[in-house]
């Protein structure tokens, strides 16, 4: 005699269960993505501010050795290569004024801007980054002037 088979038990997940899990993973991923994006933006900002301070220090050493800051035309390049034009750098330090033989870029891979005399620091120089938007005076410029001044 044959026994009547019991109702077969289904194994696995229903479509609704799978969709619920995918939705939860999507919500968590979006939250983590936004948090990571904020951390990356903060890191770029902090790196840029630190690089500005390092360039300021290197420019001060240049001034101590040569009696003046590099001209705007000589630019920050005078920190890694002895200027051949403009005011002479008579006691330019062999090896330059930066640890590396390349100029740093800001957190968004743009070159730093330099002016001497500066429009914000008339007795010295201005160093600034055009910020994330890549536009001078775009509202997110970072410079070596007072924090309440956000544009060049």
Give a description of the structure.
The protein is mainly α. The chain has a single domain, classed as Glycoprotein, Type 4 Pilin, CATH 3.30.700. Helix content is 34%, strand content 6%. It has one helix at residues 15-66, and strands spanning 113-115, 126-129, 142-143. It has a three-stranded antiparallel β-sheet with strand order 1-2-3, covered by helices on one side. The longest helix is centred in the N-terminal third of the chain and has 52 residues, at 15-66.
**CATH homolog superfamily:** Glycoprotein, Type 4 Pilin
- Tell me the radius of gyration: 28 Å
Number of domains: 1
The total of helices stands at 1
User: Mean pLDDT score, rounded?
Assistant: 85
**CATH architecture term:** 2-Layer Sandwich
Helix content: 25-40%
Q: Give the SSE order as H and E letters.
A: HEEE
List unreliable stretches of 5+ residues: 148-152
What is the total tally of β strands? 3
- Report on the biggest sheet: 3 strands, antiparallel
> What's the shape?
rod-shaped
Summarize the structure.
The chain has 152 residues and is mainly alpha-helical. It has 1 helix and 3 strands.
Q: What labels would you give this structure?
A:
single chain; 152 residues; mainly alpha; 3-stranded antiparallel β-sheet; 1 helix; rod-shaped
List the helices and strands and how they pair.
Blueprint: H1 15-66, E1 113-115, E2 126-129, E3 142-143
Antiparallel strand pairs: 1-2, 2-3
């Amino acid at each position: 005699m044959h026994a009547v088979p019991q109702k077969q038990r289904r194994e696995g997940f229903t479509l609704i269960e799978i969709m619920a899990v995918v939705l939860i993973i999507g919500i968590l991923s979006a939250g983590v993505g936004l948090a990571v994006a904020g951390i990356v933006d903060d890191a770029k900002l902090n790196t840029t501010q630190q690089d500005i301070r390092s360039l300021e220090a290197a420019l001060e050493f240049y001034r101590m050795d040569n009696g003046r800051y590099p001209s705007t035309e000589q630019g920050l390049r005078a920190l890694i290569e002895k200027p051949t034009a403009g005011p002479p750098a008579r006691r330019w330090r062999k090896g330059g004024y930066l640890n590396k033989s390349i100029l740093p870029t800001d957190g968004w891979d743009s070159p730093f801007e330099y002016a001497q005399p500066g429009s914000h620091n008339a007795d010295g120089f201005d160093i600034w980054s055009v910020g994330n938007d890549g536009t001078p005076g775009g509202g997110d410029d970072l410079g070596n002037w007072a924090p309440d001044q956000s544009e060049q």
